[in-house]
Specification:
globular, 39% helix, 322 residues, alpha/beta
Length: 322
């Protein structure tokens, strides 16, 4: 069996939220190294796993060898969830779990270009298709670059960083991660002694833009809503405030808990019935023991809900569009 290099976060809490059982079908929308999938399969449920990263195939092969009749992997992003389930021929979807963000095994592969701590090609694609981070920093104008650095990276000096990138790329295009990290660090004055590396926010923004992560999250949540059977369970683990805000807003809206407007304004009654009920208020976080054992768990939040019998809502406008 292939050893999993990526430890699933909040595993016990996710399984408690999903409550998988023999005969049920669960979609693991972020297969990765198969941590959630194996735990779900151990309960007797079947798993349809999704992942757009081609490098997860050895982990999928190992799971398929252990559970040949109850597991399948589909190469697709979150937005393909509904189609993947339809193609599976299964009659009912009982659960779906999302683990949002980049995995530790992707960060550890220098050739993927996700990390500024290791030199590698400036790629950052979770799949093997589409625009790379190098394409963005070498081809986008100042305005769009500064916009994603501010929106996706929450970088306060986004315009200054974009200016430094444009000035440098005239002399020589960016091709390597450490080269970009050095330019960003110089543009921000080094920030010596800061709790995070100066390039952290810029690299995060580029990764999100390259993979349309927030758009995929929104479309994935809507696909899960449209596909889950009544009583089906949704569990979403996030690691950053940008992602958590999207999940929180989605569930707040879909459970009918959107805050009322001004008491002086007319009340607009939404005729759509809640499509989810919350399993618990707020978000669950990792305990001290898991935080100590797995640094990735320190920022993790789990939100979970149960699908009602109400029809799915119409797709919403993107909240975090670039």
């Amino acid at each position: 069996m292939t050893e999993a290099p990526h430890a699933p976060v909040l595993l016990a809490e996710v399984i408690e939220a999903l409550k998988p059982a023999p005969g049920e079908v669960v979609i693991d929308a972020t297969f990765g190294a198969g941590g959630y999938t194996r735990a779900i399969l151990a309960t007797g449920a079947a798993v349809i796993a999704l992942d757009r990263d081609p490098t997860v195939q050895p982990h999928a092969d190992a799971v398929a060898a252990d559970f040949p009749d109850r597991f399948q992997l589909v190469r697709t992003p979150f937005s393909g969830l509904a189609q993947a389930f339809a193609d599976s021929g299964k009659a009912r979807l009982d659960g779906a779990v999302f683990d949002i963000g980049v995995s530790s095994m992707q960060l550890d592969q220098a050739e993927r270009g996700f990390s500024f701590m290791r030199d590698g090609p400036l790629d950052m694609r979770m799949s093997d298709e589409g625009e790379t981070a190098a394409d963005i920093v070498n081809g986008w104008d100042h305005g769009p670059l500064a916009h994603i650095f501010k929106l996706y990276g929450e970088e306060r000096q986004s315009g200054h960083v974009a200016t430094a990138i444009l000035r440098r790329r005239v002399e020589q295009p960016f091709t390597r991660t450490l080269d970009l990290a050095e330019v960003v660090e110089k543009a921000l004055g080094g920030r010596r002694g800061a709790p995070i590396h100066p390039a952290t926010r810029v690299f995060q923004a580029l990764r999100i833009a390259v993979n349309d992560e927030l758009g995929e999250l929104e479309r994935g949540l809507e696909a899960a809503e449209a596909t889950l059977a009544p009583g089906g369970r949704l569990a979403v683990v996030t690691f950053h405030s940008l992602e958590d805000r999207i999940v929180k807003a989605f569930l707040t809206e879909r459970t009918g808990n959107t805050p009322a407007g001004s008491r002086h304004a007319p009340i607009a009654v939404d005729p759509r019935k809640p499509s989810f009920t919350l399993q618990f208020k707020g978000a669950r976080e990792a305990g001290d023991e898991e935080r100590s054992a797995n640094p990735r768990a320190r920022s993790a939040k789990l939100r979970a809900a149960i699908r009602t019998e109400a029809p799915a809502w119409a797709p919403q406008k993107k909240r975090m569009a670039a």
